[in-house]
């Protein structure tokens, strides 16, 4: 039976890298005999907002819930629509309503890419950041008192539920279990945040009992960020709350060179709802319309989607093709952010051809 994929390209370079993501997926589907069926939606973009006054139609949930996965480009065009409207009106709706409680980002230094960390080679940086995606510090619980006066008070609470913490930890431990190094690092700050973070630590210790073969360590977020830069080779699977995971999942990919190649997944592991796969980068208005955006972030996100759908070998083949094309270093093929003079299409085609061969 066909796997049904909902495609939402969004804005800016999202509309340019998406066709390359699909080209690569189609080449992979052909080679591995996987039946993928793509359905494109125009909503979830700023143009849709300008026409309809909202980012999504009222029945978006009904329209999308039956799909096996969502393949997303990038959303946002700040000159036309403020970011809080475009982001909250689309992507964050998907994450919340489809209970995509895992945000997963691989951080891997690819051949041919220069890390901003001096002397780092491919192999030195190869880990995953697992971020809690539905509660924690981003829970919008709180309020204001005495607004506009000298006595003004603002409060925002962190919400951690046992279910919410345990389910992200379980995902991270299970992921660590599949990796050769079997190592898990937890981000905490229990010396400063004295109620929720000790609770997080407690749940990590409890979960660790069920995974005796996994080496577990923890760092306070301040020193952890320093260690990402100083010792990226220490890490294998890193798990953090919504805020800490957010910070780490930008810092991690930044250590691996260009933002143009980093992929991400927003996952509902039980498969009750579709999961969403998107590049880490945004709509990049500064380079949109020029055909020079790097499509690798979109293509690699497609590889994560195939893995999620149960085709690990096919997903790995896509990543191998990305690595091979980057290693060859043909400047006519590669985009500018990775040192070439090529285009979105030249790089996308080279990867798709490599997958097919
Ligand atoms: P967001 O608000 O969604 O995080 P943004 O607009 O702040 O996004 P990006 O769109 O990610 O940021 O762009 C940041 C910078 O990285 C821009 O200067 C952009 O040109 C560059 N960039 C982003 N994506 C790519 C890409 N795929 N290829 C090449 N350069 C990119
Ligand atoms: Mg932006």
Automatic annotation (TrEMBL):
InterPro entries, alphabetically? ICDH/IPMDH (IPR050501), IsoCit/isopropylmalate_DH_CS (IPR019818), IsoPropMal-DH-like_dom (IPR024084), TTC_DH (IPR011829)
Q: Kindly give the SMART domains that the UniProt entry links to this protein.
A: Iso_dh (SM01329)
- The organism of origin for this protein: Vreelandella lutescens
The entry's family comment says: Belongs to the isocitrate and isopropylmalate dehydrogenases family.
Q: Which reaction does it catalyse?
A: (R)-malate + NAD(+) = pyruvate + CO2 + NADH
Give the Gene3D superfamilies listed for this entry.
Isopropylmalate Dehydrogenase
- Cofactor(s) demanded: Mn(2+); Mg(2+)
In Swiss-Prot or TrEMBL terms, this protein is called D-malate dehydrogenase (decarboxylating)
Q: Tell me the enzyme class.
A: oxidoreductase
